[in-house]
Specification:
It is found in: Cell envelope. This protein is about 30% helix and about 35% strand. It has helices spanning about 1-45, 110-145, 150-185, 230-235; strands at about 50, 50-55, 60-70, 75-80, 85-90, 95, 100-105, 185, 190-195, 205, 210-215, 220-225, 240-245, 250-260, 270-275, 290-305, 310, 315-320, 325-330, 335, 340-345, 355, 370. The longest helix is centred in the first third of the chain and has 45 residues, at about 1-45.
């Protein structure tokens, strides 16, 4: 009976240990299966679906566009030749004027007094001249009669010459004063359009200070600003096309007429004047124009979406899909911007596939799943 009880106890222990071992084995196997499943999911998660496009190169001519303004070829800064206070302005901005029109006037009171003074000096000098002439005539007769000596006669001759010179001096001063009185009126010497008003009524201006800008009638041209590294290219330009923001359907040919010899001290660019070969009649002064420089070198270029650019410091780059559907970052050289696109000049070859979206979430060598169309 005791042996039977002992066997029963042993069997229960063996059964307990066996069950424990089985449960432990099942837990280990389940853990391994779960771990392998997790690793498979992690690997699957590393393969990112991206939007891609195949590069298709096209022949294009590289050009540059510069913004400018329609200007007159001849522009004059008008100023008074005398100083004074402006009392009248007869023109407005944009006024069309003719030669001889009075544009402005300064207060002529002081100048008028100067003219009156010089006029009185002329009358005085002329009176002295008449007296000297009468004395000379009388002493000439006395000298011829032998009543006076030659020395006395020559003294009156000299007095007459001095009086005549005084008349000339007073007349010149009077003429100068009269000219200054006329200079109090600012007149246009050529027909044109007033493009700027630099002084107003009540302002005291000095002689030579610009008060108006006159654009003379005649040729119109476009002024642009060009950086120094493009000057030589502009000199050798084969073709220039000029368009206008306000005239959408107008495009005219242009040529370089003048390049400034020195750069602007503020913008560090050179002023360039472009003559228009066949200017449209509806073109107005001050219109915004765009001058496009078309070069003669044709090269293979492609335009890619701006979203494909990965900015790595100062160097733009794109993600290129390599063999095995992995990606690598490649620097590129960019050109002109378009409507949501940018031109690539160097760095990409025809037939290569690039990532066009989500570029800042990718890593070097990462596996991707492809999608998208050709450019």
């Amino acid at each position: 009976m005791q042996q039977l009880n002992w066997l029963t106890k042993v069997s229960k222990k063996q059964l307990y240990y066996s069950l424990t071992a089985i449960v432990a084995a099942l837990c280990i196997i389940g853990g391994m299966v779960w771990k392998e499943h997790r690793q498979t999911e992690a690997v699957a998660d590393d393969i990112t679906v991206v939007r891609t496009a195949v590069v298709g190169a096209a022949a294009a001519t590289q050009g540059y566009t510069y913004s400018g303004e329609v200007r007159g070829r001849y522009e004059s800064q008008l100023a008074f030749q005398v100083s004074g206070k402006i009392i009248k302005r007869n023109v407005e901005l944009g006024s069309v004027i003719n030669a001889g029109d009075v544009l402005m006037q300064i207060d002529p009171k002081d100048i008028q007094q100067t003219v009156n003074s010089t006029s009185a000096q002329v009358y005085s000098a002329e009176s002295q001249l008449r007296l000297a002439e009468s004395n000379l005539n009388r002493f000439r007769q006395l000298y011829e009669q032998g009543a006076v000596g030659r020395m006395a006669y020559e003294q009156y001759v000299s007095a007459y010459e001095v009086a005549a010179a005084a008349v000339q001096q007073a007349s010149a001063q009077h003429t100068q004063g009269a000219n200054q009185l006329d200079y109090s009126l600012l007149r246009a010497d050529r027909p044109g359009v007033i493009s700027a008003i630099l002084a107003e009524m009540g302002q005291v201006v000095s002689a030579g200070q610009p008060v108006l800008t006159l654009v003379q009638d005649g040729e119109r041209e476009v002024e642009i600003s060009v950086p120094e590294n493009r000057i030589e290219e502009l000199r050798k330009a084969q073709q220039l096309k000029v368009t206008f923001w306000a005239l959408s359907n107008v495009k005219v040919d242009g040529r370089v007429r003048e390049i400034a010899p020195m750069a602007d001290p503020v913008t560090r660019t050179y002023k360039v004047r472009i003559s228009l070969l066949n200017p449209p009649p509806e073109m107005k002064l001050g219109m915004t124009a765009a001058v496009t420089l078309l070069g003669g070198n044709t090269q293979q270029t492609v335009s890619i979406p701006l979203a494909a650019i990965y900015q790595n410091g100062s160097m733009p780059a794109v993600w290129v899909v390599t063999t095995g559907d992995s990606i690598t970052l490649r620097p590129i050289k960019t050109g002109q911007f378009g409507a949501g696109t940018i031109q690539v000049l160097e760095g990409l070859q025809q037939g290569e596939r690039i990532v066009t979206a989500g570029v800042h979430k990718l890593n070097e060598g990462q596996k991707v799943k492809l999608g998208g169309d050709s450019l």
